[in-house]
Structures are given as structure tokens and as C-alpha cells.
Design goal:
With 266 residues, this protein is an alpha+beta fold. The chain contains ten helices and six strands. The chain has helices at 2-6, 22-32, 38-50, 63-71, 112-122, 132-141, 151-154, 160-166, 197-205, 251-265; strands spanning 53-57, 75-82, 85-93, 142-150, 170-176, 179-187. The chain has a three-stranded antiparallel β-sheet. It has a three-stranded antiparallel β-sheet with strand order 4-6-5, with helices on both faces. A hairpin with a 2-residue loop joins strand 5 (170-176) and strand 6. The N and C termini lie far apart (58 Å).
Length: 266
């Protein structure tokens, strides 16, 4: 709250503008219009505000019209462009409902639960179905990891699912036949957004690269990547959740893997 109160139109950016609400914009504008350089910067202010807010000019200033805007969650107020130009605006924060609504500017201002909601509303194909650009945006604000397991193994007590949820991750489950892909998301601390680029890259690798199994080293100290070409070292008795971390290109592959699991378990 203190940070929001300190913001002015001059210090407003396309990132921190997501921290304020419509009433804050009206207050900032009223303060800024008294400054000598206001007219010179007015277009810039508008550009920044529009990046996060819908703005509609209310040309019919009647109570019944205002109520309709307020029913649509608009905040209504007066905006002075100069002494002879007084406008009434309706302002509403832009909704983040679709994957395409996510940007580098707003990704740090939504919760993991909100991200999961957006993914759930747009999903179907799993994490790898997202474009690389969308993945990069999401991973700039969240630690993401995934696992794909047979349905009956995903919620195994003490398994990856329980560990991630207990560690504060939100999870989205996507059914893929007899298997389920679980996508785990947890917001990165904001202090890491500006400087710790190497740490961010390491975080992005969790669940996608060579570092994925590090979270489970203690539990499976001798386990190598299941893609290892050395068949002599493979031990079916040591199958764990991480053994299933892969992307299956065809349903035939899924069925083959499912049969292997069935033979092992039963």
C-alpha cells in the first residue's frame, strides 16, 4: 500500500501500473495536471495507463448512464486535459483471462492460483503445447515444474504431488488418456526479478532440464535419467515418479508404457 501511495503519473510504468486501481489513476491525474510539464507528457501518461486499463469516455453524463458503467465494474471520474476540456472517464483494469493476456509487465502481479485459472481456461494440450514465448513470460514470474504419471500414481502419498502442494505450489491436472500431466506453479519472490538472472534460469530448468531430478536426490540417490542408454543399469524395481517425466508423442507410446507399468505392479 505504501508503494501504491508513492506512485505518481511520472513514476508510473507499464509494469507497476498493474499495482494501482482506477481511483488511484484519477487521483494521480488530478495531481499531475497542476504540474508545468503535464501537457508535454500527457500522451505518455495515457499510453502507460491504457496498457493496464480499459478507458471509455462517457459522453452522456446522466445518472442512469453512470450506473451502467459502474455495473460493468468501471470507476467513473472527471479528467481535465486543459482549462477548456473536461472529460468524464470510465476506467477498469484489463482482465487477465486468456493466455494471450499474459505479458512480462503483468505476470508479476498475478497469483499462482490466478495463473492456474488462466491455464485451465485455455488448456488441453499440456505445458509443451504452449508457445515458447508464452512459456518464457510465465517462467519469468513463476517456478514451473511438470510431471506426467498414470492416474493411479499421481496422488501417491508422499509423492511429488504431495511435496509440491505442501511447498506452496498450485497445481493443474490435465488428463491424457490413462495418464495425467500435472503442472505445478509457484510465484517467484519479486526481489529476484531484476538481478538474479542466473538463478531464474536454474529455476526454469526444474522439471524441464537436467536439474529436474535434483529435488529428489536424497530419495533416489542412485537414480540416473531414465533416458540413459545403459540398459544394464536399469532396474524396474526403482521406478519412481521422475521415471515418467517425458512427453509422449503418440498414444501407442502411452499404451506401451502403461503395459510396462502394469506388468511391473501387478
Amino acid at each position: 500500500m505504501k508503494q501504491q501511495k508513492a506512485l505518481t503519473l511520472k513514476t508510473l510504468t507499464k509494469s507497476n501500473v498493474w499495482e494501482v486501481e482506477g481511483n488511484d489513476i484519477f487521483r494521480m491525474w488530478e495531481t499531475a495536471e497542476k504540474e508545468s510539464d503535464f501537457k508535454d507528457n500527457r500522451n505518455h501518461y495515457m499510453d502507460v495507463i491504457r496498457s493496464a486499463f480499459e478507458i471509455e469516455e462517457i459522453k452522456i453524463d446522466k445518472p442512469e448512464v453512470i450506473k451502467k458503467y459502474e455495473a460493468r465494474d468501471f470507476k467513473v471520474g472527471n479528467i481535465h486535459f486543459d482549462d477548456n476540456d473536461n472529460k468524464k472517464w470510465g476506467i477498469k483494469k484489463r482482465a487477465i483471462n486468456r493466455i494471450t493476456d499474459l505479458t512480462y509487465e503483468n505476470i508479476h502481479h498475478i497469483s499462482a492460483a490466478k495463473l492456474i485459472e488462466v491455464l485451465d481456461r485455455n488448456f488441453g494440450g499440456g505445458w509443451d503445447s504452449l508457445s515458447q514465448s508464452v512459456q518464457d513470460i510465465i517462467e519469468s514470474g513463476f517456478d514451473i515444474s511438470t510431471t506426467t504419471l498414470p492416474k493411479d500414481r499421481l496422488h501417491k502419498p508422499g509423492g511429488m504431488y504431495d511435496k509440491k502442494v505442501n511447498d506452496g505450489y498450485e497445481v493443474l491436472e490435465i488428463t491424457k488418456g490413462l495418464w495425467v500431466e500435472a503442472i505445478f506453479a509457484k510465484a517467484k519472490p519479486k526481489v529476484e526479478n531484476h538481478h538474479k538472472h542466473d538463478d531464474d534460469n536454474d529455476s526454469m530448468n526444474n522439471g524441464f532440464g537436467d536439474n529436474y531430478d535434483e529435488d529428489f536426490e536424497d530419495e533416489n540417490p542412485s537414480e540416473n535419467s531414465y533416458d540413459d542408454d545403459d540398459d544394464d543399469d536399469f532396474d524396474e524395481d526403482k521406478l519412481t515418479e521422475e521415471s515418467y517425466r517425458t512427453t509422449f508423442e503418440t498414444e501407442e507410446d502411452l499404451n506401451l508404457e502403461a503395459e510396462d507399468v502394469a506388468d511391473d505392479d501387478y
